[in-house]
Automatic annotation (TrEMBL):
GO terms for biological process: L-histidine biosynthetic process; methionine biosynthetic process; purine nucleotide biosynthetic process; tetrahydrofolate interconversion. It comes from Sandarakinorhabdus glacialis. This is Bifunctional protein FolD. Catalyzes the oxidation of 5,10-methylenetetrahydrofolate to 5,10-methenyltetrahydrofolate and then the hydrolysis of 5,10-methenyltetrahydrofolate to 10-formyltetrahydrofolate. One of its GO terms (molecular function) is methylenetetrahydrofolate dehydrogenase (NADP+) activity. The lineage of its organism: Bacteria, Pseudomonadati, Pseudomonadota, Alphaproteobacteria, Sphingomonadales.
Length: 288
């Protein structure tokens, strides 16, 4: 078997087009476009790239983007004061604090300071709780994008064996909650899991989000499985050039899977498209 390669870039672009149409409707009805404010603290090069990509995508969708780039030495009170100002600004519908934050800042305290109605990352404890209780919520963009890709590949996933590898608050835990909400039988594997290979071999859906290049061996994949790779690991190839690889050994996994996402061009573009969808959702909820 050779897997169908899921084109997250094309799927992400299609979602962005749908969001842009919704944005135009919103602007016509309310006399203003939805606004997204992105906050970056420090100069992490990857984060700077992602923030730039978010700004471009937001503007391309017809929304108003404000990027707040703060020095790495910004204190926690200074950051909290900016968030309070954005919370109070009626033209701001979505607020996103790019992660990771510098070590001297308490990430949990900062995420909890964002107005849950403007929390387009879905990281606020209120949105986390709503998702886990099966209530309407702003849902983290990466797992929401993964779920879209899975449902488009498989259709109904009720009762299917799903394995989420990784238990981060950003991807693993919300991914498990989303799969459970679709009635999949969900297992979460993590660094203490014994016999990861046996879990992978049983799974009809695998979502890997650990950040370890090639952790999941292709030979472990159950034939026909839907394989979603969230890992984005920068490695140096034999030619000395840096390249991006996922958590799953791509070629051997592709030979066994039914569907597989590439890295890059799989899950990544869905994250940004999902952010735009969340911003429009937040804007609509705030005017209703
Ligand atoms: N506040 C947040 N911080 C972080 C999030 C998040 O969702 N919210 N996720 C990641 C980084 N991230 C967005 O912020 C992100 C990562 C990757 C991509 C992407 O499109 N990747 C491309 C490859 C790009 C490249 O060459 O580097 C791909 O996979 O095709 C978009 C967004 C951590 N922080
Ligand atoms: Mg910290």
């Amino acid at each position: 078997m050779t897997a169908i390669i899921i084109d997250g870039k094309a799927r992400g672009l299609a979602l962005r087009t749908t969001v842009a149409a919704g944005v135009a409707e919103f602007a016509a009805a309310h006399g203003r476009a939805p606004g997204l404010s992105v906050v970056l603290v420090g100069q992490d090069p990857a984060s700077a790239v992602y923030v730039r990509m978010k700004g471009v995508a937001t503007r391309e969708a017809g929304m108003v983007s404000a990027e707040h780039i703060l020095p790495a030495e910004t204190s926690e009170p200074e950051l909290l004061a900016l968030i309070a100002a954005l919370n109070a600004d009626p033209t701001v519908d979505g607020i996103l604090v790019q992660l990771p934050l510098p070590r001297h800042i308490d990430t949990d305290r900062v995420l909890a300071a964002v107005d849950p109605a403007k929390d387009v990352d879905g990281f606020h404890p209120i949105n986390v709780g709503k998702l886990s209780a099966g209530l309407d919520a702003l849902v983290p963009c990466t797992p929401a994008g993964c779920l879209l890709l899975i449902l488009e590949a498989l259709g109904d996933i009720s009762g299917k064996e799903a394995l989420v590898i990784g238990r981060s608050n950003i991807v693993g835990k919300p991914m498990a909650a989303l799969l459970l909400a679709k009635s999949a039988t969900v297992t979460i594997a993590h660094s203490r899991t014994r016999d990861l290979a046996a879990h992978v071999a049983r799974a009809e859906i695998v979502v890997a989000a650990v950040g370890v290049a090639g952790l999941v061996k292709g030979e472990w994949i159950r034939p026909g499985a839907c394989v979603i790779d969230v890992g984005t690991n920068r490695v140096t190839g034999a030619d000395g050039k840096a390249r991006l690889v996922g958590d799953i050994e791509f070629e051997p996994a592709r030979a066994r899977a039914g569907w597989i996402t590439p890295v890059p061009g799989g899950v990544g573009p869905m994250t940004i498209a999902g952010l735009l969808a969340n911003t429009l959702q937040a804007a609509k909820a705030r005017v209703s």
